[in-house]
Amino acid sequence: MPETTHRPTRPKLYVIKNPRRLPPPHLSTGDRVMLFDGECVLCRRMIQCLIRIDSRQRIRLATVQSPPGQALLRWAGLPVDNFNTIAYIAQGQVSVRSEAFLQALNQLGWPWRALAVMRILPRGLRDRLYDGVARHRYRWFGKLPAGTLPPDDKGGNRYLDHGQDCPKSGSAG
Questions:
Q1: What phi and psi, each to the nearest 5 degrees, are found at residue 117?
Q2: What are phi and psi of 114, to 5 degrees?
Q3: Could you check whether the bond before residue 111 is cis, i.e. omega within 30 degrees of 0?
Q4: Overall pTM surpassing 0.85 (yes/no)
Q5: Where is the composition biased (Basic and acidic residues) (predicted)?
Q6: What gap in Å lies between CA 15 and CA 12, rounded to an integer?
Q7: With contact defined as beta carbons under 8 Å apart, do 54 and 32 qualify?
Q8: Mind listing the pLDDT tens digit for each residue in 78-101?
């Protein structure tokens, strides 16, 4: 019988399942949360747009610098001090990079859901484009001072820390 080589399967780096089966901290059943860099001007603009579009408040928010954001990063096994992507957590799964963006768009309904057509692009290409922007985001769009409050959520309770961000200094995003 010929010997077959067994190739170890690599875990997907884009959707991370929590092997501990613990629920994510700060979230109720059915909650979805977008983690973003509270010091990144581009991220702030993206979140301002999300707040405007998501009138049903389907997606909760947290900066990666906030205590709830840090707890969720630890829960997901993601870096807490040098975070170079957005993360989207829903139903115990964590999506990062372009997949996080597309997962969030999927919750927003028409016409935003139509942007999911970007999935026809290979994930590697989408993520290379995403990484290029993420790597240069501070130079191209600017960086806010540590401690800057996140965008106003129009009186809702979208932020896990109620918008009272207590950031650490450092790179995140």
A1: -60, -20
A2: -65, -25
A3: yes
A4: no
A5: 152-165
A6: 6
A7: no
A8: 989 877 889 999 988 899 998 998
